[in-house]
Specification:
The complex is a heterodimer of chains A (108) and B (82). Chain A has 108 residues and is of the alpha+beta class. Chain A is 48% helix and 16% strand. A four-stranded mixed beta sheet of chain A has the order 2-1-3-4, with helices on both faces. In chain A, helix 2 packs parallel to helix 4. By secondary structure, chain B is α+β, with helices and mostly antiparallel strands. Chain B has one domain: GMP Synthetase, Chain A, domain 3. Helix content of chain B is 32%, strand content 24%. The chains are: A alpha+beta (108), B alpha+beta (82).
Chain lengths: 108, 82
């Protein structure tokens, strides 16, 4: 059975080319990994990053883990697709793979 | 029982035929590891899927606490031929 808040997650990630579920907000991150992920997204050209603070909403946090089947936060979605957490987006950025993905998502 | 570097390396290399792994003990305590893994199983997959494959292989050891932390870098063989 799918999580009742699954459609809420889907709406958020479909509505934004680049979206991050994180601890705190993009302007006021409450965790080093979340802060670094936002920085990396900005460096990859994402502009103003929109996000959701899981610390403010436990049911949504549960729904997110169910949706992505990934155990940690932050979680980054690009073009509606789950891309990874802080380590993965950082590594993708280092390899030059993140920026093209962000650019492609922003076109749509 | 904690894993030795050789045991962890061998385990990671069971991922698929032709997989090569290098492991580093980050803390000297045999429970915080960094691993670089090159595997044909990663070919054509997004990095998140590559990581999922490794984490699935290691899940039991992570759940039991044998491995407390595992940071990985994954490469498909074709990514190294640039």
């Amino acid at each position: 059975m799918s999580h009742p808040l699954r459609t809420e997650i889907e709406k958020l990630v479909q509505a934004h080319p680049v979206y991050i579920f994180m601890k705190g907000t993009p302007d006021f991150p409450m965790c080093g990994f979340s802060a670094r992920a936002v920085q990396v997204l900005k460096a990859a050209g994402a502009g103003k990053v929109e996000g959701f603070d899981v610390l403010s909403d436990d049911p949504m946090w549960d729904a997110l883990e169910d949706y992505s089947q990934w155990p940690t936060v932050p979680q980054i979605f690009i073009g509606g697709k789950f891309v990874g957490g802080c380590d993965i987006v950082s590594e993708m950025h280092e390899r030059g793979e993140l920026q093209p993905m962000v650019v492609e998502a922003l076109k749509k | 029982m904690l894993l030795t570097a050789d045991q962890l390396k061998s385990k990671l290399e069971t991922l698929a035929p032709g997989t090569r792994a290098e492991v580093t003990d980050l803390t000297g305590t045999q429970d915080h590891w960094q691993a670089t893994i090159i595997s044909p199983a990663f070919e054509g997959k997004m990095m998140i899927e590559q990581h999922r494959l490794v984490m699935k292989l290691m899940q039991a050891d992570i759940d039991s606490g044998v491995v407390h932390a595992l940071t990985i870098k994954t490469f498909a063989p074709s990514q190294l031929k640039a």
